[in-house]
User: Fold this.
Amino acid sequence: MTTLRALIAAGLVVATFGLAVAKLPPPPPMDEKAKAAAEEKKAKDAATAEAVKAQQAKAEDRVAARYIAEQKAKGKVVTPQMGPTVIAAAASAKGAAPAAKAAPAPAAKK
Assistant:
């Protein structure tokens, strides 16, 4: 008997919610100024993201160069390994095939 009551109560809640949502007015249409502002913000965000990405790459290059110089000073030879993102960026810059098809990643040694 309690299961039937719970089902009836759930049905009433769903029906009431459906009626409430149906009575809501539609959202106002977006005007041209708002569209232009949204496009401008989107372009500005993309430019900012690109600048941050360039700064990150530059910082990573500096750290790698410093590490290689420190290891060279200790007498160790370090050959930097190119990660999948670097390979993909180089391949797309050259217009070649994707890096996954061009050069498979080396197998990990155990």
Summary: The CA atoms of residues 58 and 105 lie 24 Å apart. Residues 32-73 form the longest helix (42 residues).
